[in-house]
Design goal:
The chain is α+β, with helices and mostly antiparallel strands. Helix content is about 30%, strand content about 25%. It contains twelve helices and 21 strands. The strands form five sheets. The protein has an eight-stranded antiparallel sheet with strand order 15-14-11-6-5-19-20-21. A five-stranded antiparallel sheet has the order 7-10-16-17-18, with helices on one face. The protein has a four-stranded parallel sheet with strand order 2-1-3-4, with helices on one face. Strand 8 and strand 9 form a beta hairpin. The protein starts with a helix and ends with a strand.
Length: about 400
């Protein structure tokens, strides 16, 4: 819509410049969806203005995924054409920039699909994504792209145009487009999060305990686990910010040392499938029981993808100072919802979350990475020391360190 043209342009400039930090001469790989054409075109414009050599765009249509899930032989639903993973490897080899535009484009596309079948097809997520991230060969960014379909899911009580306006208004605020200098605003927020991450890393906790309504989970850490904000540097020294927005600090846990139970505090959209009321029990690192009010079979199917799919690859803590949580709006998009609340992720872990080579060899490996939110103002977070002490980290969303 024309009235969103200026916001679309500003968001594209933020994604390409601050987020992915596209460099002159780079190839830029963009993954997007039908319904997000306006922002996709502005991202392409911004990349070429910064000197991109080629902008390579892949557009995904959830309605085509529906046809596959309805009619394809069940034995073929795990199949991913080699050219898709090869394209990602090519981008890695080329030291390319990568941009993904997120948000449910067609939220009802998988309505009525057998959940066990839906969990078999993980596209557009690619199983070698974690490997490429761990190599640090690409500067990349994932960002929200408003669409009318997504707006209707978030604001079902509003008319189509009003809902789209409201979604744009929310995303502009969340992405700090309402600041005079959004990039500077994000750098200031990143510095705050990096300070908190450094203080928690310094304590070298043996484990983290998260406890509150419906959740009591102890997550073991590696001896060399380190905490980060979403502020990355490639092997070639290119600084970039992989998530817009990002309100989290995260680490890589020991996948063998997770015990307890969690209850999700927000619904979850994964690979086009919606899940709600998630409850998971862990023993010796593995998710041994998965229930949900909606989508349990889909999540169970994902957790059976491989040996690492039922173990944790990430633990992230989110304070109450961000812009998403106070809105008390469910966006049905992991990028936004995970930055409103502390969360864990089943599947692949990040090598940069540990320092020691021996610990990196034990980081969880999987073809999936599924975040889900377990945080709330009522969730208390403690660091557990190796001599048995419990140190408060978060109370009512406020840092205690």
């Amino acid at each position: 819509m024309p009235e969103h043209a200026e916001l679309t342009r500003r968001l594209a400039d933020l994604i390409v410049g601050y987020g992915a930090n596209v460099q002159p001469g780079q190839i830029v790989g963009v993954t997007t969806y039908v319904g997000k054409e306006a922002l996709t075109r502005e991202v392409t414009r911004a990349a070429y203005e910064r000197g991109a050599r080629w902008v390579d765009v892949t557009i995904f249509d959830p309605w085509l995924k529906r046809e596959r899930l309805l009619h394809a032989d069940a034995a073929t639903l795990d199949y991913i054409p080699p050219w898709m993973t090869e394209r990602l490897e090519w981008l890695s080899d080329e030291r390319a920039a990568r941009i993904a535009l997120n948000g449910p484009a067609s939220p009802d596309a998988l309505d009525g699909i057998d959940p066990s079948r839906a969990g078999r097809d993980i596209l557009p997520y690619l199983p070698n994504t974690g490997d490429v991230v761990n190599r640090a060969t690409t500067n990349w960014c994932v960002a929200p792209a408003p669409s009318p379909g997504w707006a209707g899911l978030v604001f079902p009580e509003l008319e189509r145009d009003e809902a789209f306006d409201r979604l744009w208004e929310a995303i502009a605020h969340i992405c700090r487009l309402d600041e005079a200098d959004p990039e500077e605003a994000w750098r200031a927020r990143a510095a705050t999060l990096e300070g908190a991450a450094a203080r928690v890393t310094e304590r070298r906790f043996d484990a983290i305990r998260l406890h509150g309504p419906g959740t009591d989970l102890t997550v073991g850490l590696f001896p060399s686990s380190v905490w980060h904000a979403a502020d990355f540097t490639t092997v070639d020294g290119l600084r970039h910010f992989p998530n817009i927005p990002s309100e989290e600090m995260f680490t890589t846990p020991d996948p063998l040392r997770v015990d307890g139970h969690v209850t999700a505090t927000r619904p979850l959209e994964v690979y086009g499938a919606l899940m709600d009321g998630i409850r998971v029990e862990f023993e010796a690192g593995r998710a041994v029981k998965i229930d949900a009010d909606r989508g349990a079979d889909t999540l169970r199917s994902l957790a059976e993808k491989d040996d690492g799919a039922s173990r944790l690859g990430e633990l992230a803590l989110v304070d109450g100072e961000g812009r998403i949580g106070p809105m008390q709006t469910v966006f049905y998009d992991t990028l936004l919802d995970e930055n409103a609340a502390s969360h864990i992720a089943l599947g692949s872990g990040y090598d940069l979350g540990v320092d020691a080579v021996a610990d990196r060899a034990r980081v969880n490996k999987s073809r999936i990475h599924v975040d889900f939110m377990i945080g709330s103002p009522e969730l208390d977070v403690d660091g557990l020391t190796r001599d048995g002490q419990s140190v408060p980290l978060l109370r009512a969303g406020a840092w205690q360190v």
